[in-house]
């Protein structure tokens, strides 16, 4: 019987104060810890791949689960999602599970992450998308979208991303390698898709806010390289709201065989 489990989960982050446990607020980590502990009848440790903020969602968040006393979990891998179903709220779902080796860490073993940011650029709100998109309130012209796509492509590569790091962050090395950064329309949604070997605090939301300011005319889409080169938060645009952000995928070395039956 396996002692450590890797799970992939999706969740609606609206009701949670982010991923990380807080004693006086509902969090995704806290909710999962309590649910697993109740299901297995022993105190459990749940470790996540990232620290998503309040209101941020996930499509492919990864975490490890193990008992605090090191004993086997007691449920075969592939059947954990069924056993956990009665204990989880409707806004959290286990979508995959796999054995985790002792030296595996869901955060430090990751080689890349992919985020999606969704903007609803319509003059009317969609109540069915409430808290799941950024309601822009106006339509981005198609010719402007083409310029935004060019600006987004300038983000790819290895750069010092200090311009897209939240003020007050204490990260010493702001260099990251972005392998994908694209903007495209999907009906009434404009989606930013970005993949990198790591992300700074609020990096995706600031990139998105900068692109929105470019769409609105307060910044020029041709200035993206200059903004990156400035290495100054004040050179970039606003920080987009958390509600449109989704952690879409976490990649690890090799192929993980996700089991569920």
Describe the structure.
The chain is an alpha+beta fold. The chain folds into two domains: 4-109, Alpha-Beta Plaits (2-Layer Sandwich); 112-248, Pseudouridine synthase I, catalytic domain, C-terminal subdomain (Alpha-Beta Plaits). It is built from five helices and ten strands. The chain has helices at 28-40, 80-84, 142-153, 203-216, 224-230; strands spanning 4-11, 44-48, 57-67, 92-99, 112-120, 134-135, 157-160, 175-186, 189-196, 245-251. Strands 1, 2, 3, 4, 5, 6, 7, 8, 9 and 10 form a ten-stranded mixed sheet that branches. The radius of gyration is 19 Å and the shape is globular. The relative contact order is 0.19. The mean pLDDT is 95.
In a few lines, what is going on in this structure?
This protein has two domains: 4-109, Pseudouridine synthase I, catalytic domain, N-terminal subdomain (Alpha-Beta Plaits, 2-Layer Sandwich); 112-248, Pseudouridine synthase I, catalytic domain, C-terminal subdomain (Alpha-Beta Plaits), CATH 3.30.70.
């Amino acid at each position: 019987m396996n002692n450590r489990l890797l799970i992939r989960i999706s969740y609606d982050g609206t009701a949670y104060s982010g991923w990380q446990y807080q004693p006086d607020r509902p969090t995704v980590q806290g909710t999962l810890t309590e649910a697993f502990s109740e299901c297995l009848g022993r105190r459990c440790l749940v470790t996540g791949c990232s620290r998503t903020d309040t209101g941020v969602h996930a499509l492919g968040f990864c975490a490890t689960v193990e008992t605090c006393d090191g004993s086997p979990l007691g449920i075969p891998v592939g059947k954990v999602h069924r056993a956990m179903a009665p204990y989880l709220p409707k806004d959290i779902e286990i979508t995959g599970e796999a054995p985790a080796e002792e030296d595996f860490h869901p955060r430090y073993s990751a080689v890349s992450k992919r985020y999606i940011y969704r903007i609803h650029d319509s003059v009317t709100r969609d109540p069915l998308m409430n808290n799941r998109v950024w309601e822009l309130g106006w339509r981005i012209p198609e010719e402007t979208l083409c310029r935004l796509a060019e600006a987004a492509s300038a983000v790819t590569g290895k750069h010092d991303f200090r311009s897209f790091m939240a003020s007050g962050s204490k990260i010493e090395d702001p260099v990251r390698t972005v392998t994908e950064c694209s903007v495209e329309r999907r009906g009434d949604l404009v989606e930013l898709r970005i993949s990198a070997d790591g992300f700074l605090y609020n990096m995706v939301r600031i990139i998105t806010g900068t692109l929105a300011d470019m769409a609105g005319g307060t910044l020029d889409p041709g200035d993206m390289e200059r903004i990156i080169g400035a290495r100054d938060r004040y050179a970039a645009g606003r920080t987009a709201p958390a509600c449109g952000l989704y952690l879409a995928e976490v990649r690890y070395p090799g192929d993980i065989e996700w089991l569920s039956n």
